[in-house]
């Protein structure tokens, strides 16, 4: 049975699909382990982050994300849908939970992770669909007149209020959004209405952002006595810099479309209700070579799918550093030290949910 070879050292794990021998480890990691172990796929309890060409990774031990995903799938309502044929070369991901302003339930988190799995398979040529094989870009949007109001507070109060469950949620969402950001597909968030808390974090996982003039973005975490738990803090710094990120995070500043544009957070300001159309227009140069007015999409010359995906892969690889992973672990640990405890617990419990 195929398994992972791994050993533990100082609370971290090294893993490979191939046998690990002591000489290799001494040569590459400067010490010899006392014991090598092999475990089958079905019982592995750690998630592998690949970042070396030889497929050996270094990471903290954590619970199996597949198990966490299935646990969260049972919680709450709403859905996340993916349309690979939205427009030539462009797929559309839509958050559906209108009664909660598209807040994410556990079910929606699991479905988002499912979609990332599907997109990874698509970009690895594991599909026969023409629309999927031609895909080079994604639009992330919320159904109706709002983007995403973060975590569904009804779900939080009833199911994810404990520190342990908060840790599970953070682990799944960090992994899903990290993998989403690494996809060799250009992504843009189409922001209508509000992007709050976790919804604001979702926007940072995209390469570009289009925001309506009347929309608002706010990292409300400090008001909830916690910190970003889905990896949005570090990504925000990369987008707008340390000084601006400190204001947006630490002061929980409410950003209008113009304010977000002025600090480099968003790429486009659109009219209300036009963010998806404007996002599609913005993505056009990634899809078509030298477009001409009056031509139908079917008549226009397409850019090479492999080349465009390759360009995004270069950018993603350049950002894929050990420092990024270390910061995400730090962000996760800090969030887990606050969630479901003390002031955060009090804030969660006093929130009224319709």
TrEMBL record:
Keywords: Lyase. One of its GO terms (biological process) is fatty acid beta-oxidation. One of its GO terms (cellular component) is cytosol. It comes from the Eukaryota. SUPFAM superfamilies: ClpP/crotonase. The keyword Cytoplasm does not apply. Coiled coil: none annotated. One of its GO terms (molecular function) is lyase activity. This is Ethylmalonyl-CoA decarboxylase-like. It comes from Rhizophagus clarus.
């Amino acid at each position: 049975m195929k398994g992972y070879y791994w050993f533990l050292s100082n609370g971290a794990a090294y893993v490979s699909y191939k046998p690990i021998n002591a000489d290799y480890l001494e040569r590459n990691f400067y010490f010899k382990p006392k014991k090598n172990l092999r475990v089958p796929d079905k019982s592995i309890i750690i998630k592998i982050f690949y970042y070396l060409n030889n497929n050996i990774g270094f990471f903290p031990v954590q619970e199996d994300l597949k198990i966490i995903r299935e646990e969260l799938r049972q919680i709450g309502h709403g859905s996340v849908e993916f349309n690979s044929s939205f427009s030539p070369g462009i797929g559309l991901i839509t958050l559906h939970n209108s009664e909660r302003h598209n807040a994410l339930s556990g079910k929606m988190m699991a479905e988002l992770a499912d979609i990332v799995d599907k997109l990874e398979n698509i970009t690895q040529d594991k599909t026969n669909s023409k629309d999927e094989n031609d895909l080079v870009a994604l639009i992330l949007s919320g159904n109706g007149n709002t983007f995403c109001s973060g975590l569904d507070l009804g779900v939080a109060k009833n199911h994810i209020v404990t520190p342990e469950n908060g840790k599970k949620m953070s682990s799944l969402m960090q992994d899903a959004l990290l993998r989403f950001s690494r996809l060799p597909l250009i992504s843009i968030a189409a922001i209508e209405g509000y992007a709050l808390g976790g919804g604001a974090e979702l926007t940072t996982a995209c390469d570009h952002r289009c925001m309506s003039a009347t929309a608002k973005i706010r990292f409300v975490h400090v008001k909830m006595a916690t910190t970003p738990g889905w990896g949005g803090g570090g990504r925000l710094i990369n987008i707008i810099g340390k000084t601006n990120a400190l204001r947006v995070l630490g002061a929980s500043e409410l950003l209008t479309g113009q304010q977000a544009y002025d600090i480099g957070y968003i790429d486009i300001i659109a009219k209300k209700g036009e963010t998806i159309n404007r996002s599609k227009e913005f993505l056009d140069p990634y899809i078509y070579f030298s477009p001409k007015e009056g031509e139908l999409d079917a008549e226009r010359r397409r850019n090479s799918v492999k080349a465009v995906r390759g360009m995004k892969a270069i950018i993603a690889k350049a950002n894929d550093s050990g420092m990024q992973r270390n910061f995400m672990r730090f962000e996760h640990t800090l969030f887990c030290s606050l969630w479901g405890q003390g002031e955060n617990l009090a804030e969660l419990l006093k929130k009224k949910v319709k």
